[in-house]
Amino acid sequence: DYYGIRLATCSSDKSIKIFDVSNNQQRLIAELKGHEGPVWQLSWSHPTFGSLLASCSYDR
Known about the structure:
translocation; two-stranded antiparallel ribbon; mainly beta
């Protein structure tokens, strides 16, 4: 995210994983499975718009 606290990854297995990377740790905090195709790209929003994560997939 904007502050470097969370890291989001995307995969061809149709999933998005969000990790807490604060304090030099890597802890999985969420796994999202809403797409029906490979997820190609992710982008965190600017903090002005809240804590939003946009995803791009073959299906949408």
